[in-house]
């Protein structure tokens, strides 16, 4: 959520050259786990219904693109090494840009530079 506005600006600026998708994965900083002050109040997901409910909080922030939810086996997060967050660009089914793992290496400006090259 910290850099959601930067992500939304990417969607606005590059929707003519890219389709955007958010995959909501396991909650990295759950209230009943390792949380930060002023964090969103979300407990660790015990069921798919919990995860779907938590994804609604993100949808209320209007990410400007579709949001899907990872399965409870965390297959998408595991495949892409995305915990807690990560940016990717795919072209013809292949990863052409892989950003660093968040929160410290989550860098929407780096993805912006990549997208500007292909625009």
Automatic annotation (TrEMBL):
Superkingdom as given in the UniProt entry: Eukaryota
One function term, GO molecular function aspect: thyroxine 5'-deiodinase activity
Keyword tRNA processing in annotation: no
Catalytic activity: 3,3'-diiodothyronamine + iodide + A + H(+) = 3,3',5'-triiodothyronamine + AH2; 3-iodothyronamine + iodide + A + H(+) = 3,3'-diiodothyronamine + AH2; 3,3'-diiodo-L-thyronine sulfate + iodide + A + H(+) = 3,3',5-triiodo-L-thyronine sulfate + AH2; 3'-iodothyronamine + iodide + A + H(+) = 3',5'-diiodothyronamine + AH2
GO biological process terms held by the UniProt record: hormone biosynthetic process; thyroid hormone catabolic process
Record function comment: Responsible for the deiodination of T4 (3,5,3',5'-tetraiodothyronine).
PANTHER family attached to this UniProt entry: IODOTHYRONINE DEIODINASE, TYPE I IODOTHYRONINE DEIODINASE
Record's protein name: Iodothyronine deiodinase
